[in-house]
Each structure stands twice: as C-alpha cells, then as structure tokens.
Amino acid sequence: MTPYDDSDTKTLKGDHSTPVETHGDPRPTRSEAEAAVELLLRWAGDDPTREGLVGTPGRVARAWQEFCVGYTEDPASLLSSTFEEVEGYDDMVMLRNIRLESHCEHHMVPILGVAHIAYMPDRRVVGISKLARVLDSFARRLQTQETLTAQVAECIQSELRPRGVALLIDAQHQCCTSCLCKSSGQVVAPSWRMGKLCT
Ligand SMILES: [Zn+2]
C-alpha cells in the first residue's frame, strides 16, 4: 500500500488528476499528517487528549486535503473542451464575483474574496463555469494573491489563445486582518491583462 492509498484519497475531486509533486520524497501518510497536527496542538500549549481535541487531527488532515486538492488537478485540462468555430463572435466574455477561497503560502491562513475574469475569444469559447473551476483549482493550493492571479490568467491565455484576458482578485488575507502582519486586510492584486484588454 502506498501513501496514496490513504482512505480519503478517493474523495479527491477532479477528473484529470496528476500526481502530487513530492520533490522526490514519498508523500507522508494520513496518520503522519495527523501526528504533525497533534504535535502542533501540544506546541501551541493545549492537550490533544482532552475531549474537544480528540478528533481534531483527523478533521484537520481531511480539511487540508480539500484545501490543497488543487495539487492533484491539472487546471489546463479543464479548458480542453471548447466550442470552436465562433466566427464573428467578438464580444468580451466576463464572469464576475466568483467566490475565492485560498490559503496564503506564508502563514497557511485563509484568503477570502471574489475574482472577476474576462477574456475576448478568438475562435475558442469555453463553458463559463470552467473559468470558475480553473480559479478554484489554482486557489486550492498554497498561494500568494499575485501568483494566483498570474497563474489563472496565463492558463486561460495558453489554453484558449484569446485576443485578450484580464483578471482581478479582490480578497482579504486573514494574516493581514489578524496580528500576523501589519498591513490592512483588503488586498486588490495587481490586475493581470494582456492582448486587447490591456488598455
Ligand atoms: Zn499570510
């Protein structure tokens, strides 16, 4: 049995799974991840054996499997099924207020907000819900807002080859709204634009 046989692995989402990047090391097992959470609880000063915390390591491991399910997905494949031959279709496609849930790579705390995605098709149009799925797939990894913005825009650009793409993320970083860093919480990432949406 490999570490990938952990009982909950089958609940991972995504029809286009790619192996998790492990950097040459075997992926830790679920029980090793739970032991790490238990260690963190003790380091924080609490007692993992008290009633309220008994199931916490397992719950945290399952939660992080969902928070980071994007590592098992290939977002580009979500855009592989397109509607071709949209001759004369030159309107901008825009999806606004897509709910965004991610985690910052510096503190592993939530980034919550909304994203707005727009592109100007050039022959290839994709089902609009796929744009939200691409965002979610990149968001379910440890991220910075700037990296997330660029990754989503570049994925759309490389897969759909539109005449232009633009992306804006408006989010709050919990590390910035708490005492973890000293800036204000609302972060509007530099918008990412190219092609005909540059102006
Ligand atoms: Zn942070």
Q: How would the blueprint of this fold be written?
A:
Layout: H1 30-44, H2 56-67, E1 82-83, E2 93-104, E3 110-120, E4 125-126, H3 128-139, E5 142-143, H4 145-160, E6 164-173, H5 174-177, E7 186-188, E8 192-195
Parallel strand pairs: 2-5
Antiparallel strand pairs: 1-4, 2-3, 3-6, 6-7, 6-8
Zinc ion (ZN) is lined by residues 104, 106-107, 109, 173, 175.
**Overall mean pLDDT:** 83
* Topology, number of strands: 8
The CATH superfamily label of the largest domain reads GTP cyclohydrolase I, C-terminal domain/NADPH-dependent 7-cyano-7-deazaguanine reductase, N-terminal domain
**What is the CATH class name of the largest domain?**
Alpha Beta
Task: Count every helix, treating DSSP H or I runs of 4 or more residues as helices.
Answer: 5
Low-confidence stretches: 1-19
**Helical proportion, percent range:** 25-40%
| Distinct ligand kinds | zinc ion
Cα shape: elongated
Spatial separation of the terminal alpha carbons: 54 Å
Please describe the biggest sheet, giving its number of strands, its sense, and whether it closes into a barrel: 6 strands, mixed
Order of helices and strands: HHEEEEHEHEHEE
CATH fold-type name of the largest domain: GTP Cyclohydrolase I, domain 2
* Backbone CA Rg: 19 Å
Strand content: 15-25%
CATH architecture designation of the largest domain: 2-Layer Sandwich
**Number of domain units:** 2
Question: Based on the structure, what is the oligomeric state of the protein chains?
Answer: single chain
Structural class: alpha+beta
